[in-house]
Design brief:
The protein is of the alpha/beta class. The chain has nine helices and seven strands; from the N terminus they run ααααβββαβαβαβαβα. The strands form two sheets. A five-stranded parallel sheet has the order 5-4-1-6-7, with helices on both faces. Helix 2 runs antiparallel to helix 3 and helix 7 packs across helix 8. InterPro entries: Cell_Envelope_Assoc (IPR051599), DUF218 (IPR003848), Rossmann-like_a/b/a_fold (IPR014729).
Length: 249
């Protein structure tokens, strides 16, 4: 019963509510203006499909499965890419927090450092006027986790993945580090690896922050629309567009 309620509830809030309204308009238009009704029906179906967990998981997992976590790490530095931060929000030892993806990446890097002793370079600047400087926040949080300052490098200027790669390459060159272990979200790894390759670096990919399970299952919840699923679909499409743009350059 609880799953039925969850499925029905998904049509009370956006985007499910919008899909219902559009479906109603299709019915109302069908006998009055057939061509506009058909166009609206196609748009409604596209909106519905793109907002389901089934579509989102299929798209995102196709990116996440392109790189596997290596069993052993044989690099000389752990490079972590940012993924958003808040400014002025309370934290245990200061202000500003990394968003979910960035925090997951940082946690993976901290655990890798504990296992390998490799230094960590965090790359990410202040992307927007009201967002936090990702690398500065990460540095404070790494210190709070007990990682020595000598093992922390930061690149706090980059605003996108291309700049992550270019500016990180410059810092690694100054420190004579040549075998970076790249830590970023699994869905972001294909595009990030390409950017670092274009910047002259061959990275050891260490994907983390997975959004889709290894084995996908089909149930009613997978077919209910949600804002989260639409966000996952949008994230996957953004990555594919970014990869396409890189390959066309």
């Amino acid at each position: 019963m609880i799953y039925i309620i969850k499925f029905l509830y998904s049509f009370v809030l956006p985007p499910g509510l919008f899909i219902l309204v559009m479906a109603g308009l299709v019915i109302w238009l069908w006998k009055r203006a057939r061509i506009p009704a058909v166009v609206l029906l196609l748009v409604t179906l596209l909106l519905y499909v793109s907002s389901t967990n089934l579509a989102g998981d299929l798209l995102i997992s196709s990116l996440e499965k392109q790189y596997s976590q290596p069993r052993t790490v044989q690099g000389d530095v752990i490079v972590v890419l940012g993924g958003g931060a808040t400014q002025g929000t309370p934290d245990i030892n200061g202000q500003g927090n990394l968003l979910g993806s960035a925090a997951n990446r940082l946690l993976t890097a901290a655990r890798l450092h504990e296992a390998t002793g490799l230094p960590i370079l965090f790359s990410g600047g202040q992307v927007f006027g009201d967002s936090g400087n990702e690398a500065n926040i990460a540095q404070r949080q790494l210190l709070g986790l007990g990682i020595p300052a000598k093992d922390i490098l930061i690149e706090n200027r980059s605003l996108n993945t291309q700049q992550n790669a270019v500016y990180t390459s410059q810092i690694l060159g100054k420190h004579q580090l040549t075998r970076p272990v790249l830590v970023t979200s699994a869905f972001h790894m294909p595009r990030a690896a390409l950017e670092f390759q274009r910047a002259g670096m061959q990275v050891i990919a260490y994907p983390t922050d997975y959004l889709a399970s290894e084995k996908l299952a089909l149930y009613a919840g997978k077919l209910s629309p949600s804002a989260g699923a639409m966000s996952t679909t949008g994230t996957a499409l953004k990555e594919y567009l970014g990869i396409l743009a890189l390959k066309l350059k």
